[in-house]
Design goal:
single chain, 355 residues, mainly alpha, 15 helices
Length: 355
């Protein structure tokens, strides 16, 4: 197991050392405190993103070894410096109408103003992330070909709903309309634009992925496999971005220091990626058949929390406790089901599904 997490432990050691140095030298005499805050943020990131690791493993299983490694190397660079550091700077730059250099200077010297600008972007950001994750949740459960059900009464109803063409898109549009109706006038248009943007992003990425998979299956050429790897990589990064929106904004409730936030979230993101590769290599999702279900239920809950969060603040620990709880129950259910061969329901006829 150590080989999967060795780089995560290395990043942890380096990150905590940097946090200590930053607190001790730059802030002045609070090195241990800053290191402990960074450690807490990393634990929070792993807790909130365990379901992300399971979903990542599902997609990563269908990618080549080369792209799996790129997910751990290039992906972590994008996740840390792209989503946890650069992306917030870009958002604040847009909302404050200041240059990136000025925004970075603000983040280092006037963190209160910086976080205020970032929270201005809270509503459209969590709307995009919430709708994108809601579509992932629905695309998994609204599947009329689904063979294995966990919470049977509800999941059987969802599978039946999958016979309705474009039910996921229709539901997402109603969710956007519902969310914007509860918000002040100035937030309604940004929410609608963000929500529709999330739907379009999901449709484009999903459509390209399915097309590339068909090309790969038909063995058109080696390039088809390469493109599939790239599109799969892009899809995983978008999922990670959607998960990171709420956690990034929530991190400012724990610390106002952008450097400490970046270090803490970076450590957590590294462990999530290592955990993903571990599950892929160990075929964990095949051994514990309900883990996928538990992860997607957690995703559905997170999507709901993010959309509710446009109006009401929901503590991050609520999402973390629910995610760990539902995935733990799914894990236990999987162990029990392995002793009972009659857990898989008959397949619903494929020809009944909408084309």
């Amino acid at each position: 197991m150590f080989k999967y997490f060795k780089y995560s432990f290395l990043v942890t050691i380096i990150g905590l050392a940097l946090a200590y140095y930053w607190g001790q030298v730059h802030i002045g005499g609070v090195g241990i405190k800053m290191a402990l805050i960074a450690l807490f943020l990393s634990i929070l990131e792993v807790t909130l993103s365990f379901d992300n690791a399971v979903v990542n493993a599902l997609r990563l299983e269908r990618m080549t070894k080369l792209w799996q490694q790129r997910f751990l190397t290039w992906g972590i660079i994008i996740a840390v410096f792209g989503m946890r550091l650069l992306f917030p700077l870009i958002i604040v730059s847009i909302f404050s109408k200041k240059s990136m250099a000025d925004v970075f200077s603000m983040a280092m010297t006037d963190i209160t103003q910086y976080s205020a600008y970032l929270h201005e972007a809270h509503v459209p950001l969590v709307t995009f992330g919430g709708i994108f994750l809601l579509l992932i949740f629905m695309s998994y459960f609204f599947d009329c070909e689904k063979e294995t059900l966990w919470i049977k009464p509800i999941e059987k109803l969802f599978a039946f709903a999958g016979h309705l063409h474009a039910i996921e898109i229709i539901t997402a549009l109603f969710a956007i309309l519902a969310v914007q109706s509860f918000l002040p006038e100035e937030n309604r248009v940004p929410v609608i634009i963000s929500g529709i943007g999330a739907i379009l992003t999901f449709l484009i990425i999903n459509g390209i992925t399915e097309t590339m998979e068909k090309f790969a299956e038909m063995k058109y050429n080696a390039a088809g496999t390469l493109k599939l790897g790239f599109i799969g990589f892009l899809y995983l990064e978008l999922i990670d971005a959607s998960f990171s929106f709420d956690g990034l904004l929530g991190a400012f409730a724990i610390s106002k220091d952008i450097i400490i936030i970046t270090i803490g979230l970076a450590i957590g993101a590294m462990f999530v990626r290592s955990l993903t590769l571990f599950m892929v290599d160990k075929k964990t999702l095949k051994s514990y058949i309900f883990l996928e279900h538990g992860a997607h239920w957690a995703i559905g809950f997170l999507a709901a929390v993010m959309l509710i969060g446009t109006k009401i603040d929901v503590p991050e620990w609520v999402t973390g406790v629910f995610s760990l709880g539902i995935i733990s129950i799914a894990f236990i259910s999987s162990i029990i089901s392995n002793k009972n061969t009659d857990t898989t329901l008959p397949e619903i006829n494929e020809k009944d599904c909408p084309q």
